[in-house]
Design goal:
Helix content is 7%, strand content 48%. It has 287 residues and is mainly beta. Strands 5, 7, 8, 11, 12, 13, 17, 18, 19, 21 and 22 form an eleven-stranded mixed beta sheet that branches. Strands 1, 4, 6, 9 and 10 form a five-stranded antiparallel beta sheet that branches. Strand 7 and strand 8 form a beta hairpin. The two termini are 37 Å apart.
Length: 287
């Protein structure tokens, strides 16, 4: 069946990966932690460029690791939703274009008419057992500092845990030169970043506003991080807290590919699980 012009169409191709490892040291509540960033496990949609030509094949790379390194792919059976947003509304996609045969996941599409689009994917939850040092390092590196501080106050830094986690990714793409609205549609993911500002209507140095949602509701005082890379290498990571309506504001001072992310984690009474975390990332490009 022929797709409407503004919709993307499914394709299949391949693309290469770049690898890099970085070391970071972080101190929180008196606890010094040294972390290998390649051990992190964020999920990002990262493209060579987020500026695309109309009616053109494109692969959407979904990397699981850091913004520089994908350690493994996500199989289609773990995916609960794949969607595309345009000013005409939301289009739910099948996983027909989902390719997880390499260490990076790819979703293949053909672009349509000019405009601003949001692509999103949501994964089902999984449970993971972590020993105390690994869990503490992960909290410190990945910006879950409130939980780490509470573990220190509760004298639980030596306690091993089971975590239930799910990851939810979105990217904003610009097709052609004409921007469009409607990119603030809520997909209903367990954790989600809504672009309030269209990143293709601002330039480097201007303010980017997003809204952090958990289970469809604004989350206040959530620690949110922003980073990425440009022609001169990685950006210094920024941090901000969400306001009562979930909005977060960043002044993105450099041109390049940016991410905004957060992990919302709470203790849970679910059998056999100590914490539940819901991860959200949003990626885009600033010129």
């Amino acid at each position: 069946m022929r797709q409407p012009k503004h919709n993307f169409q499914l394709l299949t191709t391949e693309a290469p990966m770049r690898r890099r490892t970085v070391i970071a040291t972080l101190a929180i509540t008196g606890l010094a932690v040294t972390v290998t960033l390649a051990a992190a496990h964020d999920l990002f949609i990262k493209m060579d460029s987020y500026f695309l030509s109309p009616n053109t094949p494109v692969e959407i790379p979904i990397i699981n690791g850091t913004f520089s390194l994908s350690e493994n792919s996500i199989t289609a059976d773990r995916v609960s939703d794949v969607s595309l947003i345009h000013e005409t509304g939301r289009q739910e996609l099948s996983t027909q274009g989902w390719d997880a045969e390499r260490d990076t996941t790819f979703f293949s599409l053909r672009t349509g008419d000019p405009g601003t689009y949001v692509f999103g994917a949501s994964t089902l939850h999984r449970d993971l057992g972590l020993d105390a040092p690994d869990f503490n390092e992960y909290l410190a590196h990945d910006g879950v500092l409130d939980v780490l501080a509470q573990r220190a106050l509760d004298r639980e830094l030596d306690t091993d845990v089971w975590e239930r986690y799910s990851k939810h990714v979105k990217a904003v793409f610009q097709v052609g030169g004409e921007t469009s609205g409607g990119i603030d549609v809520v997909l209903g993911y367990p954790a989600e970043l809504i672009p309030i500002t269209n990143p293709y209507e601002i330039t480097a140095g201007e303010e980017m506003v997003v809204r952090a949602l958990v289970d469809g509701r604004p989350v206040a005082n959530q620690l949110v991080l922003a980073g990425g890379e440009g022609n001169q290498g990685p950006f210094k990571e920024l941090s901000a807290r969400s306001e009562t309506d979930g909005t977060v504001r960043f002044h993105l001072g450099e041109a390049g590919r940016w991410y905004i992310k957060f992990i919302h984690m709470v203790k849970t009474s679910a059998e056999g699980v100590d914490y539940e975390s819901k991860w959200a990332t949003l990626t885009f490009e600033i010129r």
